[in-house]
Sequence to fold (423 residues):
Amino acid sequence: MIRNRWIQLLLGLVCMVTISSPQYVWALFTQPLTAALGSSLAQIQVTFSLLIVVQTFLSPPQGFLVDKFGPRRLLSIGALLTGVSWVLAARASSLTGLYLTYGVLGGLGTGIIYVGVVGHVVQWFPDRRGLATGLVAAGYGVGAILTTFPIARAVATVGFAGALTYWGIVFAVVGVLAAQGLRRPDAAWLAFHAPQAPRRLERESLRHFTPAEMLRTPIFWLMFGMMTMMSTSGLMVISQMGAFTKDFGMTGVTVFGLAVLPLALSIDRVTNGLTRPFFGWVSDRMGRENTMTIAFALEGVAMTVWLLTRSNPVAFVLMSGVVFFGWGEIFSLFPSTLTDTYGTRHATTNYGFLYMAQGIGSVLGGPLAAMLHQQAGSWIPVFQLMIAMDLLTAVLAQFALKPMRRRWLADANQEDAEAPLVS
Fold:
């Protein structure tokens, strides 16, 4: 039963849920940590930046280790590192200690699990890669919904240190237990479940490309640039939403009796999760690039409407949700497209290199977007740049990536078919 691929997906989903809280509930700890360490908010926020940078920029070697030693062993280590990072952060008495525990150690643990789970499910679902990666990515995007309120109550009752310790242990135990059931599909299983040959030749590579081979191809760098632009636009909204909500005059405004910002953030978390399996499923049927064009253009149009209706509270809340519905699917579409193009054998390591685009996007959409706002004295140029990136990426998906991948797959699969058999 454990080799049932839906069980494998469920176990990967559980692992993803255990690593969602370090990113998505971080805001619950900033104020108590600021008071406890006698530091400024800016100094405390370095911790969060370290978490994201380490998680993304170390993903290639982490992916290599998962490919080499298997998901069970490495994801167990990732779960332990994630849990221990919270337990040690609870005892940090200095900024350096917080940076090293919650930031660096936490980034290592969450990064191993993220790239490991994505690389795992693309191998188990050769016929439904978009849906499978979307489902596990949704676990990371919305998993913190399960823990936000319990952790908030724990912070209020036992303090931030007690909350970090208790939940760190919970994440480690649950993650390690879930990782014990992870198994790679064997060659016979893969051969039996592979898509039908004509469709497979059109949509995916029969050859397995190493990271070194992948990095020498223009298609990878086109996808890297596209993912960087899409990551930038979404992470700009995530990191700057509190600031531009205030500048747009939405602070203190309510919709249906609820404050605009927390209501928008709650809706965003739901749409950011739902879009990942939805557009992943669509891409399995319509094709990766066609789906990218629709989704990326949707975000660009939604951001345009959002900007034009920024003084309307109801439109502000609704458009923020649509923006995230057009953004979150990058975490299902890009890994699926990458694996279709370069094969499954090195899928985890290969995606580790592509996932670095998220780290670059966090810098472009965070401090550099804030600098642009500071120089311009307005959020309008920032929005305009993000809209341009979204629409450009939609165009590139249809008119650059699609024909390039079609030619690539035809050539790669023809070479594979013509290669002499070794007896």
